[in-house]
């Protein structure tokens, strides 16, 4: 009796493993030119009143998005930066809210001024998770492309001082 139950259980486990998807794990990378660009941008945004919330280097594959999920707070002013491998020809970043609506799309091509850097400001309408999907296209190097993402948030003290922060709400 027990032997007849073991065989179907083993077959079930084998079939589950054969149909499961491979998990893409984020791996860090090291690229000296990207590190220098990241250091410069970190210094620039810090001087402008932003606080670095998150940053990560990641190994990417040409033409494949690398999703990054971040929690955002309603009404806060964020600055996002993606730096791609300088040998890539096309760089794109899409950002989606929790309902999977695209709220940001940016694209740059090789040869543009700072072509491998995409930077944008975003103020979420709701406090919720957002997904950033950077991608780069490289015809020579298909795998092991280096990418770098940074998320800055405008500091509360800068916002209250009225510097380059959000305008005060107007009431009728």
Compact description:
The chain has helices spanning 2-19, 32-47, 156-161, and strands at 50-60, 68-72, 78-83, 90-96, 102-109, 117-122, 128-137, 145-154. By secondary structure, the chain is α+β, with helices and mostly antiparallel strands.
How would you describe what is shown here?
23% of the residues lie in helices and 37% in strands. With 172 residues, it is α+β, with helices and mostly antiparallel strands. The chain has a single domain, classed as Sandwich (Jelly Rolls), CATH 2.60.120.380. The C terminus is likely disordered.
Task: Quote the beta fraction.
Answer: 35-45%
Kindly report the spatial arrangement of strands forming the biggest sheet.
Answer: 1-8-3-6
- Gap between N and C termini: 79 Å
Give the CATH class.
Mainly Beta
Query: What is the residue-mean pLDDT, rounded to a whole number?
Result: 83
Large-scale geometry: globular
Which structural category fits the helices and strands?
Answer: alpha+beta
Total DSSP E strands: 8
What name does the CATH topology carry? Answer: Jelly Rolls
pLDDT < 50 runs, ≥5 residues: 162-172
Any idea what the radius of gyration is? 21 Å
Oligomer: single chain
Q: Quick one: biggest sheet? A: 4 strands, antiparallel
Number of helices: 3
Q: Which terms summarize this structure?
A:
alpha+beta; 37% strand
Give me the secondary-structure topology.
Elements: H1 2-19, H2 32-47, E1 50-60, E2 68-72, E3 78-83, E4 90-96, E5 102-109, E6 117-122, E7 128-137, E8 145-154, H3 156-161
Antiparallel strand pairs: 1-8, 2-7, 3-6, 3-8, 4-5, 4-7
């Amino acid at each position: 009796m027990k032997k007849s139950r073991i065989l179907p259980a083993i077959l079930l486990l084998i079939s589950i493993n054969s149909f499961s998807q491979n998990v893409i794990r984020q791996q860090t990378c090291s690229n000296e030119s990207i590190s220098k660009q990241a250091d410069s941008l970190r210094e620039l945004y810090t001087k402008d009143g932003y606080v670095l919330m998150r940053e990560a280097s990641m190994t990417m594959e040409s033409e494949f998005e690398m999703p990054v999920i971040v929690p955002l707070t309603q009404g806060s002013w964020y600055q996002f930066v993606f730096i791609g491998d300088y040998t890539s020809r096309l760089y794109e970043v899409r950002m989606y809210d929790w309902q999977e609506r695209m709220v940001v799309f940016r694209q740059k091509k090789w040869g543009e001024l700072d072509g491998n850097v995409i930077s944008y400001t975003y103020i979420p309408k709701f406090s919720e998770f957002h997904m950033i999907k950077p991608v780069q296209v490289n015809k020579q190097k298909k795998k092991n492309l280096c990418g770098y993402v940074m998320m800055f948030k405008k500091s509360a003290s800068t916002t209250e001082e009225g510097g380059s922060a959000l305008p005060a709400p107007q009431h009728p």
